[in-house]
């Protein structure tokens, strides 16, 4: 029996799609990206002073004055709606007083990282960078809030940094795989994990693995690398699951607030959908007092988040 041409045409295989890159090629492209000094020593002088129990506002202000960008962000932050001050603050020492050491430390980490990552941008790729930074900073804030609602003890700023850097792989993709990233921007997925599958189909690695490998080249701590690598699947993390879990939950909560990752088209996150995540189970187990407190704390933070971000970028 002969088939007519239209039917033959409908049965023909679809055009072959370009195969993902070999692992060696992916690594070589990532390794060719510029190194970022801020990832190894994030404002070291300011960090050391902020961790000293005998720090004075005047000493901290003196260091901040050396960095015009940090100064500008500091003043924008303190004059944002969040702080509700009746008069505008133009004095750095006053800003340090109102914000407190924790807020200053977070700002001092975000500023150099964002500025150096911006240097990796390729002019051939037009992307909503401000949306990415808003999402990264919001995730950093939420990650710290989430872990503070557990019994997990952290004595440094790892909790903030894992949230801040969880999407660093997207910046590297813009530098190392600009054509593929442009294609990905036009695609849609129901969840962040599903979008990672699209990245793997097109490139071979998703942004989580790309970011983790890049950070590994910078000799960043294992906790941060693991959290970045597994922030979409914390149950698969061989260690440091709490960090990866906190980033996964924070990422979903921030997306629910309408602060998206910027680069990808992913369906909105429904209210409290994060309660069904592996990350929530890892953090709080079955529904109990700790989980209930965490839900209340997240609801409070969600209300404050937009004004907390105002003036940061």
From TrEMBL:
Entries under InterPro entries matching the protein: HD/PDEase_dom, HDOD, RNase_Y/CdgJ
Entry protein name: Putative signal transduction protein
SUPFAM superfamilies: HD-domain/PDEase-like
CDD domains the record matches: HDc
HDOD domain location: 36-234
Family annotation (Pfam families): HDOD
Record organism: Opitutus terrae (strain DSM 11246 / JCM 15787 / PB90-1)
Entry-linked PANTHER family: PTHR33525, TWO COMPONENT SIGNAL TRANSDUCTION SYSTEM RESPONSE REGULATOR
Positions in coiled-coil regions: none
């Amino acid at each position: 029996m002969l088939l007519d041409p239209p039917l033959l045409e409908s049965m023909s295989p679809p055009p072959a799609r370009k195969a993902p890159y070999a692992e060696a090629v992916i690594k070589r492209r990532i390794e060719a990206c510029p190194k970022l000094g801020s990832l190894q020593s994030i404002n070291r002088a300011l960090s050391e002073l902020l961790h000293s129990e005998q720090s004075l506002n005047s000493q901290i202000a003196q260091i901040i004055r050396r960095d015009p960008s940090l100064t500008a962000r500091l003043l924008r932050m303190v004059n944002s709606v969040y702080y509700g001050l009746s008069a505008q603050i133009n004095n750095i020492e006053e800003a340090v007083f109102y914000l407190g050491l924790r807020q200053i430390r977070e700002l001092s980490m975000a500023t150099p990282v964002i500025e150096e990552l911006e240097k990796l941008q390729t002019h051939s790729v037009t992307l909503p960078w401000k949306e990415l930074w808003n999402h990264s900073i919001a995730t950093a804030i939420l990650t710290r809030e989430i872990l503070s609602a557990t019994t997990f003890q952290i004595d440094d700023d790892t909790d903030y940094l894992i949230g801040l850097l969880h999407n660093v792989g997207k910046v590297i993709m813009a530098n190392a795989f600009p054509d593929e990233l442009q294609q990905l921007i036009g695609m849609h997925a129901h969840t962040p994990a599903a979008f990672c599958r699209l990245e793997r189909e097109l490139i071979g690695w998703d942004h989580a693995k790309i970011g983790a490998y890049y950070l590994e080249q910078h000799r960043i701590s294992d906790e941060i690398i693991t959290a970045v690598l597994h922030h979409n699947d914390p149950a698969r993390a061989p260690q440091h699951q709490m960090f990866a879990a906190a980033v996964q939950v924070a990422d979903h909560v921030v997306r629910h607030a309408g602060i998206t990752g910027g680069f990808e088209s992913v369906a909105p996150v429904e209210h409290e959908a994060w309660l069904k995540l592996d990350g929530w189970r890892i953090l709080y187990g079955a529904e109990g007092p700790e989980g209930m407190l965490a839900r209340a704390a997240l609801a409070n933070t969600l209300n404050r988040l937009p004004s907390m971000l105002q003036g940061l970028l």
